[in-house]
Amino acid sequence: MKPSWRKPVGMLAILLLILVWVVLVASFSAQIGALPILVQALLYVTLGIVWITPLKPLLRWMETGRWRAPQR
Fold it and tell me: With contact defined as beta carbons under 8 Å apart, do 40 and 32 qualify?
């Protein structure tokens, strides 16, 4: 079985996604820091979960070579 080039490319894409997301969220840290602590916590939890959303199609592509799930 021949190794796929998609997995290393996908891993680099995931690392790049994380880096971009961290820089984006950190750029708003001053504005977020001015909010009440409970709002900050809710916002950071939400932002910590939202970045996972694009991973499903990326992981599917890494495994199958297709971006979308097959139609039933």
Answer: yes
Q: pTM of the full predicted structure?
A: 0.76
Phi, psi of 44 (to 5 degrees): -65, -35
**How far are the Cα atoms of 26, 27, 37, 40 from residue 33, in angstroms, in the given order?**
11, 11, 8, 7
Decide if 61 contacts 54 (C-beta within 8 A): no
Q: Map tokens 């190794």 to a residue.
A: 3
Cα–Cα distance for residue pair 58/12, rounded to 1 Å: 11
Q: Are 62 and 7 in contact (CB under 8 A)?
A: yes
Q: Could you report the per-residue pLDDT of 12-60, keeping only the tens digit for each?
A: 999 999 999 999 999 999 999 999 999 999 999 999 899 888 888 899 9
